[in-house]
Amino acid sequence: MADYTHRLATEADLPALRALMTRAIEQLQHGFLSPEQVRASHKVMGLDTQLVKDGTYFMVERDGQLAGCGGWSFRATLYGGDDSVVAREPARLDPATDAAKIRAMYTDPGFVRQGVGRLVMDLCEGAARQAGFTRAEMMATMAGVPLYRVCGYEPVEEVLSAPIDGVRVPLVRMAKAL
């Protein structure tokens, strides 16, 4: 993984991040979701720009190309982006009692199974630990569950999104001790 670099995302990166997320949802959810659920996923998933503003959203690049991204949060929101139908809660968490939230993890389809997701996860968990958190949780997509299991996350509950045009998207809340 020595050929990957990483940095925190800035507002100037938002168009590239959104484009990667669209590609990832469109191409990587197939085989896990129906075509209708993939379409609905765009209203469930996405980038929460609060993560970029908070300085907790990472970009992983190879040779100047965005390979993946993801973040963590010290806020109560578990998942959902700026344009999603998911309610967001900006309240700050207490590291002594609350779990950090792992958020908006995406890998470019051209970089899957090349260590990008694990690198993003390591960056997020390390930053959350440094901020004093001892636990992390996330709302995982079905396509993400295999990676998160390998990274030590355990399922807590299976949920369905709110209906989007009559379609619900399956998700799994997962947690891990840091």
How would you portray this structure in words?
This protein is of the alpha+beta class and 178 residues long. 28% of the residues lie in helices and 28% in strands. It has a 7-stranded mixed beta sheet with strand order 1-2-3-4-5-7-6. It is globular, with a radius of gyration of 15 Å. It starts with a strand and ends with a strand.
Q: How many DSSP H or I helices?
A: 5
The named CATH superfamily:
Gcn5-related N-acetyltransferase (GNAT)
How many structural domains in the coordinates?
1
Low-confidence stretches: none
- CATH fold descriptor: Aminopeptidase
Topology order in helix (H) and strand (E) letters:
EHHHEEEHEHEE
List the helices and strands and how they pair.
Blueprint (H helix, E strand, L loop, with lengths): L3 E5 L5 H15 L6 H7 L7 H6 L2 E6 L2 E9 L26 E8 L8 H15 L4 E7 L3 H6 L3 E7 L9 E8 L1
Parallel strand pairs: 4-5
Antiparallel strand pairs: 1-2, 2-3, 3-4, 5-7, 6-7
Question: What labels would you give this structure?
Answer:
178 residues; Aminopeptidase; seven-stranded mixed sheet; globular; 28% helix; 5 helices; alpha+beta; 7 strands; 28% strand
Summarize this, please?
By secondary structure, this protein is an alpha+beta fold. Helices cover 28% and strands 28% of the residues.
